[in-house]
Amino acid sequence: MGINFKEIFIVITDSYLFLIFLYAVAVMSSYLFLAYLSYKELQSYLKRNGFINYDVLLSCRFAPELTLIAPAYNEGMTIEENVKSLLSLNYNNYKVIIVNDGSKDNSMELLIKTYKLEAMELDYEANIPTKEVKAIYKSKNNAFRKLIVVDKVNGGKADALNVGINIAKSAYVVCIDVDCILDKDALLKLAKPFMEQGRKRVIATGGVVRIANQCIIKDGRLISVNVPRKMLPRIQVLEYLRAFLLGRMAWERLDGLLLISGAFGAFDREIVLAVGGYNTKTVGEDMELVVRMRRYMHENKTPYTVKYIPDPLCWTEAPEDFTIFKKQRSRWMRGTMETLWMHRKMFLNPRYKILGLLSVPYWTFFEFLAPFIEIVGLIITAVFIYLGLLDWGFFFLLLAFVYFFSVSFSILALLAEELTYHKYPRVKDFLKLFVGALVEPFYYHPLAVYGALLGYYQKIVGVKGWGEMTRKGFNKAEVK
Amino acid sequence: MIGVQDKNEWVEPFLVVAILFFFLVSLSVFFVIISIRNQKNRNLKKEEQFKEAIEEILFKVLFDGQTYFYFNENFAFRKYLSQAFFRNHLRKSLIELHKNYDGINALRLENFYRESGLIYDSLEKIKDHEWEVKCQGIIELSEMNIKESFEDIAWISLKTKNKILKITAINACIRLDANRGIMHLSRHLDRFDVWTQVNIIDAIAKLNIEHLEGIDKLLKSKNKSVVSLGIKISKTFQLAELLPDIEKLTETIESKSIKKEGLELIEHFQN
Predict the structure, then answer these.
(1) What CA–CA distance (Å, rounded) separates A132 from A124?
(2) Domain assignment present for B58
(3) pLDDT in tens, chain B (271 residues)
(4) Domain total of chain B
(5) Residue B115 vs residues B51, B66, B71, B84: alpha-carbon distances, Å
(6) B30/A15 CB distance under 8 A
(7) ipTM (interface predicted TM)
(8) Rg of chain B's alpha carbons, rounded to an integer?
(9) Which residues in chain B have Cβ-Cβ distances shorter than 8 Å to A14?
(10) A60 touches B: beta carbon within 8 Å
(11) Domain interval for residue B219
């Protein structure tokens, strides 16, 4: 009996297409389910928020003390203004620690001059081991009494944050990127969940990060929100809307949030110290810290939760060109891989409840594996085209299915934005985003997958570190 | 693989239907967004249209001492008042304006609120089953100083499990009758977290009361969070006369956190 190769190939083709189809359906269903949960939670939050008066904390002596920690590396262009904006947030009980992570530019000189800094006696207790701290400065001017500047040997973002955590004395630390634009009320909103904790200890609170390219910034404050002119950052606006409005709130509701953005998050310092602070060996230190803190709480059988605030409290600059974008995506993918690998024990482990049974598997299958499955699919498709075995009708149906889902999901995110924060009131801006949604699957998605694949490659060949992440800066073009 | 051979029987029709579905969803959501924006614009225009009339009415009430009955003779006013949109805006503007006045001016606005029947909308709201509607009603009644609603609001504050409604109701009670409102706190059995306590302290602080009563009752409460609130109030308003009560409390209470709070306050007073 002879082997009919053609029939075998047809069965393989069919199986492959069918598996891809099942995977796509699983991804889409999970997105829709999370979007539904997220939107319900968002609505409920906004309803509650309408009756909350954050001003009660403005002059309140019982507001918890917070310490803002902002690592700075070669931020000389904008550091004076950024620090000024951090010192003028609406909160009465906070300190700001700027950690100069061995900048090669004149950041340190500028800070010393602008804020009249003088070196204090070096009293540094390294609860978390870090690179050498050269000096700690405080201002001679009482107007800047909240400010502490630390000069240290370069050790990366995680190391700089650890120095800040070591120096902080408060119960809560807020870790931010120094070049982010924070909402005036950001700290009021971050502090509230810590004040509400009862039986469950609130170990971390995260906030939404939005894209600020082309927005008008003045004196470190966001004056007007605009949609980016370039397509790459514009589609990132959509991507952030989808992730933050139609995703994170659902994970909060399920109590399975694994990621608090490195750009803006508050943490219970005692727990951060107990787990050893940020991991300096990963480029995904933000996600890794949250996972490690959660794991620690589970292993110590301490009731806890992680909170998330959906208000747009932090605005950041998205990469505008592909070179920077691919570096960022590669780093995100390496960070995901490293975190999932370090905490592989949690995968499908019922001991970690929703985290082990849902969050970690979700990230593994739908965040880490998705680019791999896509590229394998593309390679197999190319082979089948070459062999003339592809069922073109089914292939195009599958493509159209994915395309229309992607478009409809982005438009749902725009609807969620419309019904909630309405930050893009101009019709022109809405239409720009709509066009972005139509273009995204052809233009942006392949670039994002490429960035993620680069991350796989760099992880395999052992590339470490962030790579240069140059930013255009808000102040060059946007200030009016 | 199961299902592969007969995929054409259901997978392809499924894909066609799904594509059509997503396409229609995209299209409809697009138009929904456009219509929401149009509706918002229409409401803004309508609001603008009513704004002038509402301002005129309220200024006449406030500065000319006109009552509701004067306006009620006007057919257009009666017609407008029957529209929910107008009533809502009139009520909102009235309450906003009331925040800026006291004495006779505030009283004129309160009378207009009662006579025009706007008060009934607020009273209806506090009976609603939706907590946010209840909250809105409570805020309106307390802002317009409707003292007779104290008991109803106090009852809501005791019964509800919704924290925001509880805070709103407690604050309203304090606003309507400060000392009675504070004493009422000792009846609460649920735990007040720090956020709730801070909100209550803020509500008391806004009233600028010279002599606070009933704080000693809070210090004797069986509810530890109420005791903690009592200590915080004593600290905020420098109630040194309560020092003996606090000293007694720190000697007897088992809770370490409250004992610590109490000792800190004693130290604060002694310094």
Answers:
(1) 10
(2) no
(3) 334 445 567 888 999 999 999 999 999 999 999 999 999 999 999 888 889 889 989 999 998 888 888 888 888 888 888 888 899 999 999 999 999 998 899 999 999 999 999 999 999 999 999 999 999 999 999 999 999 999 999 999 999 999 999 999 999 999 999 999 999 999 999 999 999 999 999 999 998 888 888 999 999 999 999 999 999 999 999 999 999 999 999 999 889 999 999 999 999 988 7
(4) 1
(5) 21, 12, 11, 17
(6) no
(7) 0.88
(8) 27
(9) 1, 4-5, 7
(10) yes
(11) 192-271
